[in-house]
Amino acid sequence: MKQADINALESTLAHLPVDLKKHFSDQLLGQINAQAHTLIETASSHRICPHCGNDHLVKWGRSGGLQRYRCQNASCRKTFNAVTRTSLARLRYRNKWFDYLRCMRDSLTLRVSAARVGIDLKTAFRWRHRFLHASANANANALSGIIEVDETFFAESCKGKRNITHRSSRKRGGQSNRKYKPDKIPVVIARDRNGHISDLVDPELNKSTIHAFLAPIINRDSILCSDGHSWYKTFSKEQGIAHHRLITLNNQRVIGKEYHIQNVNSYISRLKGWMARFHGVGTAYLPSYLAWRRLFERGQPSEEAWLRAAINVNQQQKPT
In degrees to the nearest 10, what's the CA dihedral of 155, 156, 159, 162? Predict the structure, then answer.
């Protein structure tokens, strides 16, 4: 829809009497609610019981606008709907989900989002991490081609914790010691030239965790570019992957014309700049914010795409 058409529509609505405005408002609210229900119901073409994994189901009425099902497994017989055992289970106010997802698309803070959508601050916080839960867990993105990997560090944050026993508190949000590494949380970020990203948050970062992180996501025909850390060298040797080490102390930033880690460093710079608006992210929630940023790297997703990602039908499966 063109901007001129939107302006004309807004002008027409502005001159309508109050009763008609209320009528159209109710109609639009109902359509938004129905659209959310439709997206939820159609997220999976093959539904299974989230309690036992059985696919022999029957419809079992409707509740809260969603179709319910009953498992026909004799040892189960439980009922469920499309969001049971997903991160959106028991989440209320579905008519406000799209408004809130628009706030997340715009990377707004919790207080601004809560005021704009008309929900409580605690609700805004809970919704943020519910909508990000599936993306944070779907982090094992396969990488191929030329892959760049590097580490970055975030200050440890104990936001929301009442008792901090392992260090003295930093009063009034004071900065951590920039030279004291235990105050920093390392994050390893791997990125290929197609824009696929995978990351790892690990306070106890070492060779074994690096190897365990990279092994499932890197194609064996790939070429790995890294800094001088020896753990990347040993990983490449064990896996039989071509590897280029860039030693910055030797002013070695590019090998040939295409082997470097400038793309991943550029992404880290964008990530740090984007995270600054949140004034310190709690370390416990850092994977969710990394997942949030990953969603922007391949284009800005629509509210519908955000909702589909949040539902993540792969969650609705037999528990292990």
Answer: -140
Q: How far apart are CA 56 and CA 70, in angstroms?
A: 9
- Here the tokens at position 3 are 């901007």
The closest alpha carbon to 183, from 191, 175, 171, belongs to: 175
Neighbours of 111 (CB within 10 A): 10
Residue 11 lies in a domain: no
**Considering the domain boundaries, does residue 266 fall inside one?**
yes
Burial 298-314 (b: 16+ CB within 10 A, else e): eeebebeebbbbbbbbe
User: Which has the closest alpha carbon to 39: 316, 317, 315, 311?
Assistant: 311
Sheet holding 146-155, edge to edge: 197-201, 184-192, 146-155, 223-226, 242-245
**Helix, strand, coil fractions of the chain, as percent rounded to 5:** 45, 15, 40
Q: Tens digits of per-residue pLDDT, 37-76?
A: 777 777 665 788 999 989 899 999 998 888 899 999 999 9
Q: Is 50 helix (H, G, I), strand (E, B) or coil?
A: coil
Whether this prediction's pTM lies above 0.70 is answered by: yes
Q: Determine the Cα–Cα distance for residues 36 and 43; give it in Å rounded to an integer.
A: 11
- Residue range of the domain that includes 106: 17-44+87-137+302-314
pLDDT tens for 169-219 read 666 655 555 544 667 899 999 999 998 999 999 888 889 999 999 999 998
DSSP category for residue 143: B
Tokens of residue 320, six digits: 């292990």
Q: Is residue 225 part of a domain?
A: yes
Q: How far apart are CA 239 and CA 211, in angstroms?
A: 9
Beta strand spans in 109-257 (E) = 146-155, 184-192, 197-201, 223-226, 242-245
Q: Are 175 and 153 in contact (CB under 8 A)?
A: no
